[in-house]
Amino acid sequence: MMLLRAVVTRLAPLLACLGLLGIWQVAALILDTDSFPTALDAIRAIPAILGDKESLINILASLRRMAIGFGLAVMVSIPLGLMMGRSRGVAAFFNPLLMIIYPVPKAALMPIIMLWLGVGDVSKTLVIFLGVSLPVIYHSFEGGKAVEEKMLWSGAAMGLSAAQRMIRIVLPAALPEILTGCRTGLVLALITMVTSEMIARQSGAGNILFNALDMGQYDTVFAMIIIIGAMGIGLDAAFEKMRGRLVKWSEPRFDLPLSFS
Amino acid sequence: MKPRAVTSDVLLGMVPIALLIGLWQAIDSFGYAPVSLLPPPGAVFLRLVRQLFTSEYQQEIAATLFRLFTGFAIAVILGVGIGLAAAVSPAVNAVVRPLVRVLAPLPKVALYPAMLLLLGFGHESKITLVAADALFPILLATYYGASMVEQKLIWSAMAAGTPHGQILFKVVLPAAAPSILTGCRIGLVISCIVVFLAEMITSTDGLGHVLVTAARTFQAVDMFVPLITISLLGLVLNGLLEGLRSYLLRGFPEV
Questions:
Q1: What value of ipTM does the predicted structure carry?
Q2: Domain containing A77: what range?
Q3: Alpha helix (H) ranges present in chain B?
């Protein structure tokens, strides 16, 4: 009985996926319109996309841009956020600027950035970078702010320099919060990736999706939705696993991501 | 915090914004970028002020706001409702948890084509997208807020004779309010972003459409105007929510 329960908990997300696909299948059979293929039809269209060399290169190029944008954003945002968390001056300096940028859709900057940098990889990676930065900065800021003063005093008393205190005390103490931010950032990177490609319409997964929509290839549209959705769920699950390893000592505060766009 | 410290903080915060606008102006003045690609800030703000007083632009803003509020309202109602139910009832929890686990990291924008095909190109598909994106932060914040409510509070209320059915509204909901409002704040920012994107993809009106039209005709000035407008809208809405928060939480200890 215990074992069965454990297995069910383990498989619950999988069951949820199957349930959703099932609902889709039934809804499509009931509605029965050309523009809404059944789940099975959409799944059947997936191998054709992944088997096609050009679309596969497109999707991999998307993923590469996403990885570069995400990596750069994390490298810049974590130090900035931590410094904002530790120094009131730095926080007061950057906070209003960040507040102004926050509600601006980063992918909407795409048309302007395209004017300056062209439609190539640079503009798309830059947009992903901008999209990922804000939540990571915000969470690093919150994490850095919450570090216990006493630990820092002890560190200083033991002769650690300011930079050493930052790396050896503040960074690990804020790590759980930082990783929460990175998880949000990861979902966001994927969303920004799709949107930017959809606006630039030159290459990538978003381009395949919206071109198929324009040409009325509905099976491809829904197959791409499944592929992109699976990327999101897969990346999130992988990140969660890594996070669990890194911050085993701290109980995860949120075991579900807060998704942004 | 002393009032003087607040003023100096605000002044300090103005510095990077002023620097950014200064840099922007300098790039134009020294001719590093052609004005057709990067219009000077003065021209952009002048255009913004002018546009704000034309009825056409006001209608675009109204269309965007209508979608934003409707989607956000649906997300708040569903998010708070489902979040509370999942926190109180184990049966609901067992169903909702795995579903949320799968649906929350799903990029909702990728679902937009499906919504277009099913709901058409009008308001409905955009409102659904806004609601779907804003729902999860609110739902999760409600769920965590409600499941963190101290059991003692509930026992005290029961001991004081509160009927069983009212405990949810008289104890759990107010106790979870700070967390719920934080979730709503995130949801609001997301709504601003998503409604704009949806209008950029397919629309005949709204701020996103203004940007796309300007981009197609290479009117750089008109591309900046809707972006600044949505940023200002976000700031204003955030301020309103902040006001609502301090009103609703007036009896709560400072967090």
A1: 0.79
A2: 35-246
A3: 3-29, 41-52, 55-88, 90-103, 112-119, 123-147, 151-159, 167, 173-201, 207-216, 220-248
